């Protein structure tokens, strides 16, 4: 644990080299799903449709960013003995607030996401960023780190969600994209894509592509 | 300051809890009216889904659907003990009526749900098109709420929806799956002697070559026997409660 190891103080700018790196890295090089293989469970469950995947992605992004900021603000006051539980309390708080907003303004989606919004609390990405980054870095950079990791999670979910929705139900964001004439010609929706194993296969392929491009291999 | 002393740790923990719970209470409280409105709209949409007025993935706007509800659906309060419709009472009065009935009639356990709100829609020429009955009861973890719509003949199912429950997503929670609900359509709640038999959720698949199964049973929900049994049970119980009302409509 390097919670107390603060990086050397440099002249800080809002979007300096360091800040951009913090946002860009999790998009590709250290992507939470493709590289760190975190948050797999929720990415299987909520990607049957693109709108669900996007809302879930936004949720995780907001939760990671906001709890990163909060933890980072009080990082020097958190007693080391109870730091995990303090992080958990803050994460749960933010998640519940997000869930309440969903219930008020996107009732249909919140019904479909059901337990998975609540399960953001246990998403390894969130806790992982708090422990590894927010505990040792200033608020603004922690915020960017949260946004970056959230985006990294979201784009993979969006890709999986789009593929699953197009091939599983012939739609994208609820609009028919595969024309009726295709169905008339004998095309059928792929049932595998609607079920969790379909997401597993897709994720596997994405991880494969990502790693073969970035040249990373497990030791 | 010594951040690892017991006193500091305790104080910090309490402080964090107090701040977070205050923030949560504030959010929940201020969003409550909007959430209630969203839930009420969802309920109305489910009435219309059961009645076959809208589809689950209807693309019409919220305002259009609300207008459709006002235009097409009429809510009446039914006294399930006598089967009578209470004139001049709106759906909002039902809770109060039930409270009074419960207080007045302690011995009768069903008194607390004696007055129920039924939605009806009229077809062309003012003929009764559907009767949408509220159904609810215990599943595995929770009380399941839904609507069962009957055709104008008061015998065949026009549609069913389950809109509020706490069953396991993917197992018992599949009771809200439109594909599963779709097979209720056309099933009969009465047998050949016109006796009320309800709709049974079968364990396994319905065999269409057996007339009794084809008429009164639907496929079970895989991995959720208790939810399925619960639904069979409360559908029959609620239909029995409404029998007087249905008979009076049939006259």
Structure characteristics:
heterodimer, A: 219 residues, mainly alpha, two-stranded antiparallel sheet, 2 strands, B: 251 residues, alpha+beta, 6-stranded antiparallel sheet, two-stranded parallel sheet, 7 helices, 41% helix, globular
Describe what this molecule looks like in 3D.
With 219 residues, chain A is mainly α. Chain A is built from 11 helices and 2 strands, in the order H-H-H-H-H-H-H-H-E-E-H-H-H. Chain A has a two-stranded antiparallel sheet. In chain A, a hairpin with a 2-residue loop joins strand 1 and strand 2. Chain B is α+β, with helices and mostly antiparallel strands and 251 residues long. Chain B has one domain. In chain B, 41% of the residues lie in helices and 20% in strands. In chain B, the strands form 2 sheets. Chain B has a 6-stranded antiparallel sheet with strand order 2-1-3-4-5-6. Chain B has a two-stranded parallel sheet with strand order 7-8. In chain B, helix 1 packs across helix 2 (62-72). The radius of gyration of chain B is 22 Å and the shape is globular. In chain B, 27% of the residues are buried. The model of chain B has no long low-confidence stretch (mean pLDDT 88). The A-B interface holds A 77-82, 85-86, 89-90, 92-93, 96-97, 100-101, 103-105, 107-108, 111, 114-115, 174 and B 3-4, 8-9, 12-13, 16-17, 20, 23-24, 27-28, 31, 34-35, 38-39, 41-42, 57, 59, 169, 173.
Secondary structure layout plus pairing:
The complex is a heterodimer of chains A (219) and B (251).
Chain A: H1 17-24, H2 40-45, H3 50-73, H4 83-105, H5 107-113, H6 115-118, H7 124-132, H8 139-169, E1 171-172, E2 175-176, H9 180-184, H10 191-194, H11 196-214
Antiparallel strand pairs in A: 1-2
Chain B: H1 6-50, H2 62-72, E1 73-79, E2 84-86, H3 94-104, E3 115-122, E4 128-138, E5 143-151, E6 157-164, H4 178-182, E7 200-201, H5 211-216, E8 217-218, H6 225-241, H7 243-250
Parallel strand pairs in B: 7-8
Antiparallel strand pairs in B: 1-2, 1-3, 3-4, 4-5, 5-6
Helix pairs in contact in B: 1-2
């Amino acid at each position: 644990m390097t919670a107390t190891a603060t990086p050397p103080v440099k002249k800080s700018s809002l979007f300096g080299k360091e800040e951009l790196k913090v946002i860009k890295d999790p998009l590709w090089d250290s992507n939470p799903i493709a590289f760190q293989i975190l948050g797999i469970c929720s990415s299987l469950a909520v990607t049957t449709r693109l709108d669900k995947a996007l809302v879930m992605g936004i949720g995780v992004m907001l939760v990671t960013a906001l709890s990163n900021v909060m933890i980072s603000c009080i990082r020097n006051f958190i007693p080391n003995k109870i730091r995990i539980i303090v992080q958990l309390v803050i994460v749960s708080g933010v998640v519940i607030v997000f869930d309440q907003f969903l219930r008020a303004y996107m009732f249909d989606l919140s019904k479909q996401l059901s337990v998975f919004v609540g399960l953001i609390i246990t998403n390894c990405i969130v806790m992982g960023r708090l422990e590894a980054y927010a505990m040792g870095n200033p608020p603004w950079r922690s915020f960017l780190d949260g946004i970056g990791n959230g985006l990294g999670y979201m784009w993979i979910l969006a890709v999986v969600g789009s593929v699953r929705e197009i091939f599983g139900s012939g739609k994208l964001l609820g609009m028919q994209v595969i024309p009726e004439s295709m169905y008339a010609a004998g095309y059928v929706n792929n049932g595998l894509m609607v079920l969790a194993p379909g997401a597993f296969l897709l994720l596997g392929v994405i991880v494969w592509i990502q790693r073969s491009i970035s040249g990373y291999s497990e030791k | 300051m010594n951040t690892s002393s017991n006193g500091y740790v305790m104080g910090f923990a309490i402080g964090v809890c107090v701040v977070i719970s205050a923030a949560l209470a504030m959010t929940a409280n201020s969003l409550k009216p909007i959430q209630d409105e969203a839930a009420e709209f969802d309920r109305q949409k489910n009435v219309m889904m059961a009645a076959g007025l809208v589809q689950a993935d209807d693309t019409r706007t919220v305002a259009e659907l609300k207008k459709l509800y006002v235009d097409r659906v009429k809510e009446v309060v039914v006294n399930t003990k006598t089967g009578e419709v209470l004139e001049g009472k709106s759906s909002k009065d039902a809770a109060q009526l039930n409270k009074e009935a419960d207080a007045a009639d302690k011995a009768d356990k069903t008194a607390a749900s004696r007055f129920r709100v039924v939605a009806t829609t009229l077809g062309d020429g003012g003929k009764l098109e559907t009767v949408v009955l509220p159904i609810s009861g215990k599943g595995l973890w929770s009380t399941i709420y839904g609507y069962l719509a009957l055709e104008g003949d008061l015998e065949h199912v026009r549609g069913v929806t389950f809109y509020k429950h706490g069953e396991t997503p993917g197992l018992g929670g599949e009771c809200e799956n439109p594909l599963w609900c779709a097979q209720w359509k056309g099933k009969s709640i009465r047998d050949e002697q016109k006796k009320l038999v309800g709709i049974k959720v079968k364990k396994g698949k319905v065999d269409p070559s057996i007339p009794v199964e084809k008429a009164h049973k639907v496929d079970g929900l895989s991995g959720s026997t208790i939810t399925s049994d619960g639904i069979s049970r409360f559908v029959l119980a609620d239909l029995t409660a409404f029998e007087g009302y249905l008979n009076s409509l049939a006259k």
